[in-house]
Amino acid sequence: MPDHPPRVAEWLLRWLLTGRDGDVIAGDLRETYAVRGGGRLWYWIQVTTCVRIWFSPYRRAIPDLRQDLHYALRVIRRNPGYAIAAILCLALGIGVNSTVFSLLDGMYFRMLPVPRAGHIVAIDRDGSMPVFWRDYLGLRGDLHAFTGVTTAVARGTFMDVERFNFEITAEAVSANYADILGVKPVVGRWFMPTDESPGAEPPVVISSGIWKTYFHRDPSVAGKYVRIENQWYRIVGVAPANFRGVSPPVEIDAWLPLVTFPIFRPQLADPRDPGPTVNLIGRLAAHETVAHAGAEMAVADTRLRQAYPNVKRYITPMTTHVFRGITSPESRRTMRAIAMLLLAVVVIVLLIACVNVANLLLSRAAVRQREMALRRSLGASHGRLIRQGLAESLILAVGGAVLGILFGGWTDRVLSSWLPASIPQSVLRGIYLEMNWRVAAFTAGVALICAVLFSLVPALEGSSVDLLAALKTDARSGRAGRSRQRDSYVVVQVALSLVLLIAAGLLLRALQRTSKINPGFATDRRVYIRLFAPERDFTFDASTRLFTRLLGEARSLPGVRDATLSFAVLGFTDGECVSTVRNVTPSHVNLNVVEPNYFQVMDLPLIRGRDFSSYDQPHSPRVIIVNETMARQRWPGEEALGKTVWLGCGGKIPPVRAEVVGVVRDSKVGALDEVPHPFFYESRYQEGWTQFFALILHTRGDPHAVARPLIQLARAAGPDLRVYDCALSASWWLCPFGAFDGRRLCWGRSAYWQSHCP
Amino acid sequence: MSEYLGEFEQIVLLAIVRLEEGAYGVPIRHEIEKRTDRRVSIGALYSTLDRLEGKGFVHSWFADATPQRGGRSKRYFRLLPEGAEALARSKAMLDRMWQGVKVKGGFHA
User: Fold this and answer.
1) B42 touches A at CB < 8 Å
2) Could you tell me which residues are beta bridge partners of residue A280?
3) Total domain count for chain B?
4) For FRET with B42, which of A279, A569, A677, B3 sits at 20 to 30 Å CA-CA?
5) Would you kindly state where each structural domain of chain A is located, as residue ranges?
6) In a domain, B107, yes or no
7) pLDDT digit string (tens) for chain B, length 109 residues
8) CA A389, CA A454: separation in Å to the nearest integer?
9) B53 lies in a domain?
10) What is the ipTM for the molecules in this complex?
């Protein structure tokens, strides 16, 4: 009589049924086999009937998982120190990965946070705005595949809330905007058709962010007034916090009816003007498909092309697609490279975290060598011990994932603070963790991969112990193999860290190079504060007197060598129409309006001619100073000094004659990486339109030392003088010139400002 | 509608009840074969036990290994209140069906 059941049959059984369930059945069969006194055929028949168990829907896929998890939890509870270290390490790695994936999700997949978002479609022409306002009004009634089509145009502007003046992005929309999208306000209401009627009081819906920052979540905010583009708007509602408008990646701060927006008023008042170009967003009617809606739009597009054959915008055909992610291909292109770079960096961070945890687990495996040997000697298989190790790692990874998501808001900021200032604002603002099933699935997947990655080798190591040696010897006596394993982990870790270090070094070098780009004017020991004297509170004379007084007071501040006033700062300027011959169509040229000592204070060399002087007064002949590029381009091969230009864009105001009295060296205007543009300067005593100045100080020592007196000086001028908002982190109203390489350096100073803010 | 048990499910549950503390694979199978005089394959038994556990009628746990079993664990089973209810319901259903029924040969309930 054979004393052992057929080995092949037993192997087949273990192959069919893994884990403890297979063990139990093999044990049952072995017990019966012994009682029966053999029976190889019987054994084979029994094993084949187990196929039934394999096919059973009730079969436990991972039979010992519950027990493994339970045991792993007990082990972790007994040694919380290593578990906490591992979870924190993984939380950082998984958290930043989820956040960057969330950015990618926002770029490609995320739909609008509105009911039945899959029915919202965007209509565009290769990412650009598809129609003029006039044509939207014409076609909106003829579309039957949609419950409605609405419009939106995002524009940057400024908002006045009491004494704060700050930059916002507003969406100018049609009145049916919220009805089509199905977005409900948290306070008040959205727009009604009557809001578009002539004579109606202009309404505005503000974002939850503005509501929180400037109105402290006041539930009675509806009815209060804010000023946008010199027009008073009555707040009628507050948008929900998760609704950021329909212009991603731009976040919208306020919504207003397009017909009330002063920026568009001249266009809308002119019957020959087709109005501004607008984005179209529609909601599909019930049982309609995107394809059908697209076909309908194509017909409407053909009609438009026939009606306006000369409109270049209408040459590119309209496309209709589900509103998903960032609709503009250009924005996607800008963001993709940076997002991919970010993803590569955070994957390396995650790998380093995994290697760290693997090292930690390997040390634990050394300590638990006796435990493993004991369990092996009691009959636990290799696979069983590996599964046990995986269960422990899984718990650590899940803990890390949960913590990573909980700290999502924090990792957003960590990531943003790592990023150089040259990264577009759209990317920076897109970096936030927004949970949805895709991000959750990604996080779960990453956690699982982590668990397998960092646990497999230590688990294999722990399971392949030399029983006799391990049981006999001290638990702490390591083996050469394990030491090699840990060495290889250290090598991997150092290699990955090196990659990160090199990347960070390159990034720093790039930043350093940026900081070494000569903007053309002095930045060392210069500091500025941006001030705005609104027209409604200050007459021209009053604001001129105020700025003159502030300039005098600033010069007498301790530690200040000199002070000046400038309308433009790097990245902020305006333009004027300039022609060299009267009655010839002028072209647009950027300009700066300055205090006469501007060139000396900023060390901007005057190459030829003279500086502005105290004789250049409102009623004396108008003079301008041009930069080298303008002199070269406007008067090639000639001397620019003494030449006449005509300033003004036409219309009712006749062009003003001005004489070029000086030529200064080129300097950066819009960005540090720009090529030189034509640019000219006017004296603030001759150019009366600007009431917006940066008060620039040249200090003897550390410019930060004068920050507090400078703020006090500005505040002492009264509440009507607007100092750039102090609550928004994006404000860089007080910014050492030397910090052009990193806007973040200026952002960092907002804390300083807040501590001095009333 | 509450679920009724199949015949083999009832038999397995009753075997577990009869064995009380000693209900694991080998005695359950032996009990059924002894009382019903029919062969039970191990595949049929465990697929039924897994189903009964999946439905929440029984609870199982792993226990000691013995040398006769080649050092392998036993999986013990215990009837849960939901299982007892299902058993009672199935019996009552059968009783109601049998009530007043006479079949050929004079057998009646």
Assistant:
1) yes
2) A123, A151
3) 1
4) B3
5) 7-55, 117-324, 333-515, 526-756
6) no
7) 467 899 999 999 999 999 988 999 999 999 999 999 998 999 999 999 999 998 899 999 888 777 778 778 889 999 999 999 999 999 999 999 989 888 876 555 5
8) 10
9) yes
10) 0.88
Rg of chain A over Cα atoms, rounded to whole angstroms, equals 35
Q: Which two tokens stand for residue A93?
A: 């790695």
Coarse DSSP helix, strand, coil percentages of chain A, rounded to the nearest 5 percent: 50, 20, 35
Q: Which residues of B touch A34 (CB under 8 A)?
A: 68
Output DSSP code: residue A128: B
Q: CA A42, CA A45: separation in Å to the nearest integer?
A: 5
CA distance A5 to A311: 87
Q: Which of A745, A752, A702 is closest to A511 using CA atoms?
A: A745
Rounded distance between C-alpha atoms, residue A717 and residue A542, angstroms: 12
The two structure tokens encoding residue A733: 């109203």
Six-digit token string for A464: 């392949």
Instruction: Give chain A's residues under pLDDT 70.
Output: 1-2, 60-64, 163, 165, 379-381, 408-433, 457-487, 489, 507-508, 510-516, 536, 571, 650-652, 672-673, 688-689, 719, 724-758
- For residue B106, tell me if it sits in a domain: no
Tens-place pLDDT, residues A110-142: 888 899 999 999 998 887 888 999 999 888 888
Which of B42, B54, B62 has the CB atom closest to A29's CB atom? B42
Cα dist. B10→A25, B31, B79, B92 in Å?
Answer: 21, 13, 12, 12
Contacts of A53 in chain B (CB under 8 A): 43, 46-47, 50
* CATH number for the domain that contains residue B13: 1.10.10.10
In a domain, B108, yes or no: no
Nearest CB to A31; choose among B54, B55, B69: B69
Cβ-based burial of A419 (10 A; exposed 0-12, middle 13-18, buried ≥19) = middle
Phi/psi-derived region of residue B27, left when phi > 0, alpha when psi is between -120 and 50, beta in every other case: alpha
* Structural domain that includes position B55: 7-101
* CB contact B2 to A (< 8 Å): no
Whether omega for the bond prior to residue A115 falls within 30 degrees of 0, making it cis, is no
Residues 6 or more apart whose CB falls under 8 angstroms from that of A469 comprise none
Distance CA A300, CA A125 (A): 13
The answer to whether the CB of A214 falls within 8 A of the CB of A183 is no
- Closest among A351, A342, A357 to A418, alpha carbons compared: A342
Q: What's the residue count for chain A? A: 758
d(CA A630, CA A244): 41
What's the CA gap between A164 and A167, in Å, rounded?
10
**Residue A31 is nearest to which of B26, B53, B62, comparing CB atoms?**
B26
DSSP per position, A371-424: HHHHHHHTT--HHHHHHHHHHHHHHHHHHHHHHHHHTHHHHHHHHHHHS-TTS-
Q: Is A669 helix (H, G, I), strand (E, B) or coil?
A: coil
CB atoms within 10 A of CB B53: 18
Task: Please report, for residues A170, A235, A403, the alpha-carbon distance to residue A210 in angstroms, rounded to integers and kept in the order given.
Answer: 12, 11, 29
Task: Write out the two tokens for A393.
Answer: 């790692």
Q: How far is the alpha carbon of B69 from chain A, nearest alpha carbon, in Å?
A: 4
Is residue A438 a contact partner of residue A109, using CB atoms and an 8 Å limit? yes
Nearest-CA distance A27 → chain B (Å): 4
